[in-house]
Write a structure and sequence with these properties.
By secondary structure, this protein is of the alpha+beta class. It has 14 helices and five strands. The radius of gyration is 37 Å and the shape is rod-shaped.
Length: about 350
C-alpha cells in the first residue's frame, strides 16, 4: 500500500494547479479583451448610432458615431436627456419612446424621432430598440438602440411637398384661366362649370370616393365644357332651338376638350373624364356611345352633376326648369342613363339640404 502524499507534495500540486488556473484565466481574459476590442472596433466603424441602455434608461455604452454626434459624455447620462435634450423622458409626454416600449413589451420597437440640435436645427432619425439582456427572473435588463440619420431624406420629402403644392397652385390657376376663357364666350353659362364642379365634388364625397378621385373630379368639373371654345359664339348664345347641324357641333365639344387637354399631365385623368362626361349607361351618350362600366366613374359623377346644374339654370333657349325637374330626370333614368350610386348620393344630399344648387 502506497504511502499518502506528504504535505509538501500536496502544497506543490495545489500551487501548480493555481498557476495553471491563473494561466488559463489570463489567456481567457486576453481572448475576451481581444474579442471585445475587435467588436468595439467593428461597432465603431458602423455609420449608425448605437447605444446600450439599462433598465433605468441610462446609457451604459455608445459607439463612436453616437459619442461624436451627441458628446463624449453621453455614457452614464439618461437616454432622453443625452439624445433628445429633454429633462424628462419622452414617455412623460406624448412622444413615443422606443426604449421604454422595448422594456415594457419585450419585443423590438421601430419608429422615427425628431431631434433639435444646439443651434436649433432639426435632425430626423429612424430607429429600432431591442432587448439583448435579461435578468435571472427573465425580465428585460438591457436594450440596444440603433438609429439611422434620415435628415436628408426628410428634407428632400419636405422640398418635394412644397414643390407639389406650388405645382398644384399653378395648375389650379391654369385651370381657372381655361374656365374663364370659355365663360367669356358664353355668358349664359358663366359659372356653370364651377357650379357643376362643386356639385360633383359634394356627390363624390357623399359616395366616399378617395381623395385622389375627388381631386380629379373637381379639376375636370371646372373645365368639362372647355371644348365649347371651338363653337361659334352665336350658336352658344342662340335664343331659339338649335338646328341639327348646330347641335352636332355642340356634341363635338367633349372630343375637342379632350384634344386640348390630353397633352397636359394633370396627375389625374382629367382629359378622359372631360371626354366621357356626356356618355350614358345605355350607350345613348356621346361622343363614343360607351356603356355601363366602360364609362369612368368620375365621368359618371360629373355627368349627373352637369344635368342637375344645367336643368336648374337659365339658358338662352329656355328658362330654368327647376331643381325638382332636374331630380325627377335623374331619378326616372336611374340605372338607365345615370349611375345608380351617383343618383342615390345626389338625392341624399338634396333631401338633407346639403346640395347647394346655386
Amino acid at each position: 500500500m502506497e504511502n499518502p502524499p506528504s504535505y509538501s507534495e500536496l502544497f506543490s500540486k495545489v500551487r501548480a494547479l493555481e498557476e495553471e488556473n491563473c494561466r488559463i484565466n489570463s489567456i481567457s481574459q486576453h481572448n475576451i479583451n481581444h474579442t471585445e476590442a475587435k467588436f468595439q472596433a467593428i461597432l465603431d466603424t458602423v455609420d449608425v448610432h448605437m447605444s446600450l441602455i439599462d433598465r433605468k434608461l441610462d446609457i451604459v455604452w455608445a459607439n463612436r458615431k453616437t459619442r461624436k454626434d451627441f458628446g463624449e459624455d453621453i455614457v452614464g447620462r439618461p437616454c432622453h436627456s443625452a439624445c433628445f435634450g429633454n429633462c424628462k423622458p419622452p414617455c412623460a409626454d406624448t412622444q413615443k419612446c422606443l426604449v421604454r416600449d422595448a422594456f415594457r413589451f419585450g419585443v423590438e420597437q421601430r419608429g422615427e424621432a425628431e431631434v433639435t440640435g444646439g443651434d436649433g436645427q432639426k435632425f430626423y432619425y429612424s430607429g429600432t430598440a431591442r432587448v439583448v439582456v435579461h435578468d435571472r427572473d427573465g425580465r428585460p435588463d438591457a436594450v440596444v438602440k440603433v438609429y439611422h440619420d434620415i435628415t436628408e431624406q426628410k428634407r428632400a420629402e419636405e422640398q418635394l411637398r412644397e414643390s407639389l403644392l406650388k405645382l398644384r397652385k399653378n395648375l389650379s390657376g391654369t385651370i381657372q384661366a381655361m374656365a374663364m376663357t370659355v365663360e367669356t364666350r358664353d355668358p349664359y353659362t358663366a359659372g356653370h362649370q364651377r357650379r357643376t364642379s362643386d356639385l360633383a365634388r359634394s356627390i363624390a364625397q357623399e359616395m366616399g370616393l378617395s381623395g385622389e378621385q375627388i381631386d380629379g373630379i373637381r379639376m375636370a368639373g371646372v373645365i368639362h365644357d372647355l371644348g365649347k371654345i371651338s363653337i361659334p359664339a352665336e350658336i352658344l348664345s342662340k335664343p331659339g332651338l338649335l338646328g341639327k347641324m348646330e347641335y352636332s357641333l355642340i356634341q363635338n365639344h367633349p372630343e375637342t376638350g379632350f384634344s386640348i387637354l390630353k397633352g397636359i399631365d394633370f396627375h389625374w385623368p382629367v382629359a378622359e373624364i372631360v371626354r366621357q362626361h356626356h356618355e350614358r349607361l345605355d350607350g345613348s351618350g356621346y361622343p363614343d356611345g360607351l356603356r355601363g362600366d366602360e364609362i369612368m366613374l368620375e365621368a359618371r359623377v360629373i355627368g349627373v352633376a352637369d344635368v342637375i346644374e344645367a336643368m336648374s339654370s337659365h339658358r338662352p333657349y329656355r328658362p330654368s326648369l327647376g331643381v325638382d325637374k332636374a331630380f325627377e330626370e335623374i331619378v326616372e333614368n336611374r340605372g338607365v342613363l345615370y349611375d345608380p350610386a351617383v343618383v342615390d348620393a345626389s338625392v341624399r344630399l338634396f333631401n338633407n339640404h346639403e346640395l347647394n344648387i346655386h
